[in-house]
């Protein structure tokens, strides 16, 4: 496991404040008002959340950004004028298993369907794989994958019944990018990294470790080695400046928004964009263990059908403060 280096972040939320993080701050009581950077856990079975500040940021990528795609613009200023708590990690296999056991929800593939997995050579849908066995070795602490957008919604409905009044939900796409950037406006949350050598300290994407261990990898990879060919569990890489782990890479994360071709007329208040667009697709963000470098950028956007289950697709939760 990589040691977590000290992180120092200053932000603006009405007044200027600075927060030094050398480790995870102590969890805050559920009924208190946590300061930015503090963690909170509302119940034994609830994911640990990190309190974020309220601020604004520029969403999307500039025209000259390396790897940019057309759907990442036009850039716009988005205001997160409210307090938000976001999952410190993606929802884990153990957390999802408790939901399945308690609720009776059956996320397993339906007849003729399955989980889209990579067998080391090609991608394909396999009825032998699902959230319990996503095509690579996992522990309870690994992020759950092979779960659909609908599965994530069912988990959130259960969590809201378990702890009423908290308003657990998926992040909006704007909230996700705000949380991922953590005050950084470059290509990645850790810098522009043109040489692709710094990513391995911060993100689990495709790199030299993956290329060495997975024979079928033919696409571009980071020029460094992070020691993991598949998703990791826990704080293996450095958190971003908000104290969130694996916002880039590991597994794609479902967000609430319907897919739109670009940001024309998109909300600027942080809310999910569910009007218009193509309701046949929901947005995923963050990249995954197999992502090429450009796919780990903070502005990168992807999409999937809401009933899609993939061996590199999971989710992260949020709630208002």
TrEMBL record:
Listed transmembrane segments: none
Protein name, UniProt field: Formylglycine-generating enzyme family protein
Annotated organism of origin: Pelomonas margarita
Signal peptide coordinates: 1-29
Residue span(s) of domain Sulfatase-modifying factor enzyme-like: 46-319
Annotated region described as Disordered, given as residue ranges: 54-75
Record keywords, A-Z: Signal
One Pfam family from the record: FGE-sulfatase
The keyword Signal appears for this protein: yes
Gene3D superfamilies: paralog of FGE (formylglycine-generating enzyme)
Biased composition, class Basic and acidic residues, residue ranges: 66-75
């Amino acid at each position: 496991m990589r040691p977590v280096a000290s992180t120092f972040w200053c932000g603006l939320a009405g007044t200027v404040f600075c927060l030094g993080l050398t480790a995870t701050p102590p969890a805050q009581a559920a009924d208190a008002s946590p300061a930015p950077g503090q963690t909170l856990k509302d119940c034994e079975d609830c994911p640990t959340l990190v309190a974020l500040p309220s601020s604004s940021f520029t969403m999307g990528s500039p025209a000259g950004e390396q790897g940019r795609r057309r759907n990442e613009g036009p850039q716009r200023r988005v205001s997160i004028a409210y307090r938000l708590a976001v999952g410190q990690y993606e929802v884990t296999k153990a957390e999802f298993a408790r939901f399945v056991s308690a609720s009776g929800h059956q996320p397993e593939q339906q007849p003729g369907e399955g989980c889209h997995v990579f067998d080391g050579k090609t991608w394909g849908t396999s009825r032998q794989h699902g959230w319990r066995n996503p095509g690579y070795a996992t522990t309870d602490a690994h992020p759950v994958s092979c779960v659909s957008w609908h599965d994530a919604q069912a988990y959130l409905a259960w969590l809201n019944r378990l702890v009423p009044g908290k308003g657990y939900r998926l992040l909006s796409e704007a909230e996700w990018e705000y949380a991922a950037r953590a005050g950084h406006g470059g290509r990645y949350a850790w810098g522009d990294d043109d040489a692709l050598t710094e990513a391995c300290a911060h993100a689990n994407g495709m790199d030299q470790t993956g290329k060495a261990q997975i024979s079928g990898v033919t696409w571009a990879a980071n020029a460094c080695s992070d020691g993991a060919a598949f998703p990791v569990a826990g704080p293996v890489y450095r958190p971003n400046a908000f104290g969130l782990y694996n916002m880039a890479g590991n597994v794609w994360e479902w967000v609430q928004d319907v897919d739109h071709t670009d940001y024309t007329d998109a909300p600027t208040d942080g809310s999910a964009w569910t009007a218009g667009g193509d309701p046949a697709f929901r947005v995923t963000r963050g990249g995954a263990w197999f992502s090429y470098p450009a796919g780990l950028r903070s502005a990168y956007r992807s999409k999937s059908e809401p009933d899609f289950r993939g061996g590199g697709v999971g989710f992260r939760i949020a709630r208002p403060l």
